[in-house]
Write a structure and sequence with these properties.
Structural class: alpha+beta
Helix content: 25-40%
Largest sheet: 8 strands, antiparallel, barrel
Order of helices and strands: HHEEEEEEEE
Number of domains: 2
Distance between the termini: 134 Å
Number of strands: 8
CATH class of the largest domain: Mainly Beta
CATH architecture of the largest domain: Beta Barrel
Length: 235
């Protein structure tokens, strides 16, 4: 009996020792998951460190191109502004005042709208009204005349210009019998003048013109000078 009890005790002791060794060598699933979780962040960290080495050169290239693109756009805009003057700024408004004294006296007022073809070349349209006084057959006659014309003005120097102006006037002329008759008389004025600026966009001008046609119905004497005083302003 003692032998049997002793054998059972030995078996129980061996079984208990074997169970203890199995528990110490086997890793629980929870601990295994913890180990995997600790390893995974380390792997992610390595990939994040490698990404900047690929992205940084691209960013540097893009930032280097942006200033060049801005410089090109700015230069293009400046060239476009310099290449063409705005359309409205090429127009200007003004008028002239003309006077002739002698056998035939006249005072002319002519509003003008002009256009700048080039920095040194101007053209425009004028409408005239003239008060005139003429001595004929021992009498003095007063008339109210009107006309229309155009001009071309070229600035050969800074403020000195050449001026040519084809015009036509409607004159109330006196006949031999004392009656009056209205006739259209053509002119081709040519001469030179000067301009004086009074502000950045305003000026006064004076020019002396001579009629190249000398029409027989013209009240002016042949090669009689016509002094014209004008003023103008632009946008």
């Amino acid at each position: 009996m003692k032998k049997i009890i002793t054998f059972v005790c030995i078996c129980l002791s061996v079984f208990a020792q074997a169970q203890t060794e199995t528990n110490t060598t086997t890793t629980p699933p929870e601990e295994a998951n913890k180990v995997n979780q600790e390893v995974t962040p380390a792997t992610d960290a390595n990939t994040e460190i490698k990404q900047p080495t690929i992205v940084v050169p691209v960013q540097e290239t893009q930032t280097a191109q942006k200033p060049q693109e801005k410089t090109k756009k700015k230069a293009k805009n400046e060239n476009e502004k310099k290449s063409a003057m705005p359309f409205l700024k090429k127009f200007y408004f003004g008028g002239t005042f003309g006077a002739t004294f002698g056998k035939y006296t006249s005072i002319t007022i002519a509003p003008t709208i002009g256009y700048r073809l080039r920095p040194s070349l101007y053209t425009g349209l004028k409408v005239y009204y003239t008060y005139s006084k003429q001595k004929s057959f021992g009498n003095s006659y007063e008339h109210h005349n009107y006309g229309i014309g155009t001009f071309l003005r070229w600035f050969a120097f800074k403020d000195l210009y050449l001026h040519i102006a084809p015009e036509t006037y409607s004159f109330d002329t006196v006949q031999i019998d004392g009656s009056s008759e209205r006739d259209w008389v053509p002119y081709l004025w040519a001469g030179a003048g000067t301009r004086k600026r009074v502000s950045k966009r305003s000026w006064v001008s004076v020019h002396v013109l001579f009629d190249m046609l000398n029409d027989k119905k013209s009240p002016y004497e042949q090669w009689e000078p016509n002094v014209v005083i004008g003023a103008g302003t632009s946008f």
